[in-house]
User: Which sequence fits this backbone?
């Protein structure tokens, strides 16, 4: 029944074809992706290629791909945008189809398509938002006479804000036609509603369109500058995840977002604003995959201290810890991976067994944890429990977290014919023993030998993230090794955190992940990608892994300041 | 446009959880003579999925085989832990004289329209099988979340016939979370692309019916306004396109194609339709409101079909990750906890009966849906699939799924029979999907992971 040859045709999701797999992982198995196996031709990667086939034309194919510059708003950005634009905090984009993830990120421009169901949802959501504008007419249309001129003024106000640039005359005229249609059939309010609806489903609203100034930059062959309007959006969406504010708007209007110094002044201002924390939190949410932490479930029979309320506390701790490290002066990769302070609410304090009892309720309190047990991000129960099973730990999933998110290696999923159901835990064997037994065969070993020896370092933490001295009386062996990297050998999680903090591979990976998030593309989608990552990595090296320095550096690269000149046609 | 011949009055509803609830079946029966008008043309076929989570109780779901004795609830003394899979017999069988089982009893009036299908294995195991029972694949994992591994059979059908109606397909739910996931979602547009059901009847009503005024002229004006809005957006995008580079053009073509499809679909909407009343607001995430929510949702589902707004619909009762309870049945335990009945727990007899009561209640809902479709005169062209991801309440295994079909799908299916496939053939649910696709006139030899397909099931084809 399980025919290997047939099974292989299943799509290998998230597997970049041109990425070198470390070690001998997956040797002997062909990795051809066969999109037909997905069963539908309306898939998310039809127009331009996503992660499945996108890399086949990458630099190693010898052909340069014109970078996609037009980025569709993600659901997160859409919600922030309608909040900024209309004051609507209902998060309407949550009904849109989920973005296809490339690596961990939801904002890869190539993968952000516009499937028919999205258009259907955009149509009805836009209409609902337009209805609200029409109901609240007075705050939108302050003019005295409700006539065509007043309609024009409304269209210009809303349209230019929605498109993040001034409108051209023919664009205004087109919307006035829509307005007039509504006004004729049902009056002024209907005209406003229809024009607003048309604006809210328009392409310049959904896409960040960039045309550039068309002038070659001296000393930068093939590059031009984005217009000041376009730069305003680059800045605000990167650093705030929302459209330009009034100050950026005025700067764009004065065409004062062209020189690096002008741009850096805005970067300073934007980073100092609390909204930057939201955007940075978004990066970490995606990079570290924190979203599912909220819905962690564990076997209540096996773990008597488990409570279904804990995941919320776990998540709050992770968010607060990452936020604190990033925004503290000098906050660094090292602190992220080794710091032993944290933020706990009542249930989490009890979970950690903190002396002096629990702080009250849901309030997060800064505490110092035992540095021998709780040093760095990886030792926090949210990540430990997330990357573990219902009733037992998973060295494989924990190892994968390090391999993929911290070392930027792409690991293939297990061959489809493999039964990956975890074996039932028994009392006469450690988890490590069971895993080693089951993955030592020639099918599993090539990849698992890259993953599991990292995950074994986590074995002093059970499936809920609680520390354990032994495993039902059996000694725990937490020694491990990250082969094919500069991380080396370690014994236990404290040593692993330290080794990762000292690793140049990890440092470069952090730079790479930020590159992907900031520019909405993989580093191998454009020819200059690796050089830009080099530059970001150099900033990290020079600053001792300073994370805020990295964020600023992202706004100083050629990838951020410039864009390619269009090819002559 | 022709009227469907039903009055709005038959769907009178009060607000906030207080149904006036004319007994739906009575009001429909009175109208059934007038329900024969068909807006759609000949050869129309429809497909509906009614999905329940957490398995069933196979011994009480499958009909008692000829010569057998009906299953009795065990007592603590004779309780046998169910480590094996229950089959009604060890050889293939087609029994046109079957009697409805205890769980299917509420469907007795429709016995001749049913197919009870025994002998298919789910495509994915355990609770994750929820996502897989309609996709015929295993899950895929994206960013730490397990998701459907391919397109589901309802969406595959919608891809073929959905272009002819205002909505390609419709997903409704009761007590279903908004999250997309392997345990939350049964309908998938494609790999990892879940189709979440709408659980708020008022939102669903607005989506389906708000543009369908009873006054045809008013409805036409609404349509023209929408087209005007779309026209402006499409015009804007077309102008923009001419200024873009080649890659951006490809990007924008996706946008243009999708909105052109919206425009085309808008023109397919019937100008008028005797829509149900706008449902009141309710606390639809509360267990107590589930019966009313179900009634409203199934009213709308049936009416959307009758108005030919869509020909494919999927209804989800709760989800595999549910914490739903059934206080309205006098059942205290959570659905999921009840599904893990163990014979050594005091009071297990009650739990077992509670669990079966939930199954029977769902059978009642399906019977009500069939009543509606019959009243509208569209049942014969419909195929309805009731499916759940696991075999048995006590053991979460994927084998011998309790599956029921209702309606001949326009004469394609042979109803009124209990079909038992060869227990040794190890056939997978993919075979059912291939059969359904072929029954819908779709040229399909395979579905889902191809190695799981052995071919269509002639025993259920007419």
Assistant:
């Amino acid at each position: 029944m399980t025919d290997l040859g047939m099974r292989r045709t299943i799509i290998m999701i998230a597997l970049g074809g041109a990425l070198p797999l470390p070690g001998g992982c997956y040797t002997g198995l062909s990795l051809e992706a066969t999109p037909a196996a997905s069963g539908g031709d309306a898939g998310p990667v039809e127009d331009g290629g996503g992660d499945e086939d996108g890399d086949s034309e990458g630099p190693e194919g010898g052909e340069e791909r014109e970078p996609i510059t037009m980025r569709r708003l993600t659901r997160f950005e859409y919600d922030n945008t309608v909040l900024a634009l209309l004051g609507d905090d209902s998060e309407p984009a949550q009904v849109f189809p989920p973005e296809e993830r490339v690596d961990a990120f939801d904002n890869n421009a190539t993968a952000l398509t516009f499937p028919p169901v999205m258009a259907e949802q955009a149509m009805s959501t836009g209409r609902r938002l337009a209805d609200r504008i029409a109901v609240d007419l007075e705050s939108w249309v302050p003019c005295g006479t409700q006539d065509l001129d007043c309609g024009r003024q409304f269209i210009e106000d809303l349209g230019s804000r929605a498109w993040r640039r001034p409108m051209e005359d023919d664009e205004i005229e087109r919307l006035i036609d829509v307005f007039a249609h509504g006004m004729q059939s049902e009056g002024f309010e209907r005209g406003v509603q229809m024009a607003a609806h048309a604006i809210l489903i328009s392409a310049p609203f959904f896409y960040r369109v960039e045309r550039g100034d068309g002038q070659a930059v001296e000393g930068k062959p093939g590059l031009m500058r984005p217009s000041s309007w376009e730069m305003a959006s680059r800045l605000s969406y990167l650093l705030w995840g929302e459209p330009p504010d009034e100050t950026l708007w005025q700067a764009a209007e004065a065409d004062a977002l062209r020189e690096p110094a002008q741009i850096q002044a805005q970067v300073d201002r934007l980073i100092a604003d609390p909204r930057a924390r939201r955007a940075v939190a978004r990066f970490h949410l995606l990079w570290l995959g924190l979203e599912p932490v909220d819905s962690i479930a564990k076997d209540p029979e096996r773990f008597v201290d488990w409570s279904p309320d804990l995941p919320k506390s776990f998540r709050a701790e992770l968010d607060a810890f990452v936020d604190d490290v990033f925004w503290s002066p000098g906050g660094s990769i090292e602190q992220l991976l080794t710091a032993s302070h944290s933020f706990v609410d009542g249930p989490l304090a009890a979970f950690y067994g903190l002396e002096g009892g629990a702080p009250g309720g849901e309030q997060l309190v800064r505490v110092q944890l035992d540095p021998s047990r709780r040093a760095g991000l990886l030792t926090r129960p949210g990540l430990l429990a997330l990357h573990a099973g219902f009733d037992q730990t998973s060295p494989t999933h924990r190892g994968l977290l390090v391999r993929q998110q911290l070392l930027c290696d792409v690991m293939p999923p297990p061959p489809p014919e493999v039964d990956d159901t975890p074996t039932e835990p028994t009392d006469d064997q450690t988890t490590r023993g069971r895993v080693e037994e089951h993955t030592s065969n020639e099918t599993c070993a090539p990849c698992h030998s890259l993953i599991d020896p990292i995950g074994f370092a986590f074995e002093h933490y059970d499936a809920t993230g609680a520390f354990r001295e032994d495993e039902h009386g059996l000694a725990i062996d937490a020694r491990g090794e990250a082969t094919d990297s500069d991380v080396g050998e370690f014994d236990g999680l404290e040593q692993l955190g330290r080794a990762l903090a000292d690793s140049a591979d990890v440092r470069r990976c952090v730079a790479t992940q930020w590159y992907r998030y900031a520019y909405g593309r993989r580093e191998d989608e454009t020819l200059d990608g690796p050089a830009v990552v080099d530059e970001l990595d150099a900033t990290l090296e020079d600053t001792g892994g300073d994370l805020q320095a990295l964020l600023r550096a992202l706004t100083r690269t050629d990838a951020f300041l410039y864009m390619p000149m269009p090819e002559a046609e | 446009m022709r009227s469907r011949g039903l009055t709005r009055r038959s769907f009178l509803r009060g607000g906030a959880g207080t149904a006036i609830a004319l007994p739906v079946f009575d009001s429909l029966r009175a109208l059934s003579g007038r329900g024969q008008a068909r807006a759609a043309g000949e050869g129309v076929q429809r497909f509906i999925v009614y999905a329940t989570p957490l398995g069933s109780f196979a011994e009480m779901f499958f009909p008692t085989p000829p010569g057998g004795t009906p299953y009795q609830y065990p007592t603590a003394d004779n309780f046998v832990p169910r480590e094996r899979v229950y089959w009604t017999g060890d050889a293939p069988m087609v029994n046109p004289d079957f009697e409805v089982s205890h769980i299917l009893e509420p469907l007795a009036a429709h016995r001749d329209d049913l197919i009870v299908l025994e002998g298919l294995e789910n495509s994915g195991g355990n609770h994750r099988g929820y996502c897989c029972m309609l996709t015929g694949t295993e899950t895929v994992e994206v960013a730490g979340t397990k998701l459907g591994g391919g397109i589901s059979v309802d969406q595959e059908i919608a891809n073929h016939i959905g272009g002819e109606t205002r909505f390609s397909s419709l997903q409704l739910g009761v007590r279903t979370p908004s999250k997309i996931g392997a345990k939350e979602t049964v309908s998938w547009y494609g790999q990892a692309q879940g189709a979440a059901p709408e659980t708020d009847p008022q939102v669903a009503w607005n989506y389906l019916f708000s543009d369908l005024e009873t006054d045809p002229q008013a409805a036409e004006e609404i349509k023209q306004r929408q087209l005007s809005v779309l026209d402006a957006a499409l015009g804007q995008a077309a102008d923009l396109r001419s200024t873009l580079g080649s890659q951006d053009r490809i990007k924008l073509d996706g946008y243009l194609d999708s909105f052109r499809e919206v425009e085309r679909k808008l023109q397919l909407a019937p100008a008028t339709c005797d829509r149900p009343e706008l449902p009141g607001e309710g606390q639809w995430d509360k267990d107590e409101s589930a019966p009313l929510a179900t009634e409203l949702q199934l009213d709308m589902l049936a009416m959307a079909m009758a108005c030919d707004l869509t020909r494919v619909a999927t209804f989800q009762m709760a989800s595999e990750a549910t914490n739903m309870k059934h206080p309205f049945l006098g059942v205290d335990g959570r659905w999921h906890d009840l599904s893990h009945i163990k014979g050594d727990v005091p009071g297990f007899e009650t739990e077992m009966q509670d669990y079966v009561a939930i199954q029977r209640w769902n059978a009642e809902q399906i019977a009500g849906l069939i009543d509606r479709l019959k009243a509208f005169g569209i049942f014969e062209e419909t195929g309805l699939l009731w499916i759940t991801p696991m075999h048995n309440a006590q053991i979460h295994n994927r084998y011998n799924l309790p599956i029921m079909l209702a309606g001949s799908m326009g004469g394609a299916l042979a109803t009124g029979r209990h079909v038992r496939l060869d227990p040794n053939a190890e056939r997978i649910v993919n075979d059912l999907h291939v059969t359904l696709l072929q029954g819908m006139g779709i040229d399909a030899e395979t579905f889902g992971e191809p190695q799981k397909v052995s071919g269509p099931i002639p025993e259920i084809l007419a």
Observations:
- The first strand of chain A starts at residue 71 and ends at 72.
- Chain A touches chain B through 78 residues (CB under 8 Å).
- The CA atoms of residues 27 and 446 of chain A lie 7 Å apart.
- The radius of gyration of chain A is 26 Å.
